[in-house]
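Standup notes
- DV: blocked on the single-chain target, sequence here:
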Amino acid sequence: MAERPSESEMQVLAALWDDAPQTAADLTARVGRANGWTQATVKTLLARLVQKGAVAAEADGRRYLYRPAVDRDAAVGEESQRFVDRLFGGRVSPLIAHLADREALTDADIAEIEALLRKLKS
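- DV (later): unblocked, structure below
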């Protein structure tokens, strides 16, 4: 993605990753109402996502069908790396240390991290 989607745009994109194609009306029912967005707001978010190249629109009679134009894993990878770069100098261990210091890691989280580390070492 050339330009990073906003938080609101990411909610729309996530809904499309979960189920596509969808119309603006579908997306308004799915994510718009929960956020207090009108269909006009959802259409604005979709137009921005289309302009950014994150969503593709296809005419279907008098309506448009929207689908993601970027892969979820790739987008999550880019966003994760941006986050780690910006806040932790590109290093993951300070992020984990920060979460541990704030007691934000559950026992299940710790077990998953340990399993990932064992997998990386093998």
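- Follow-up: The two ends are 33 Å apart (CA to CA).
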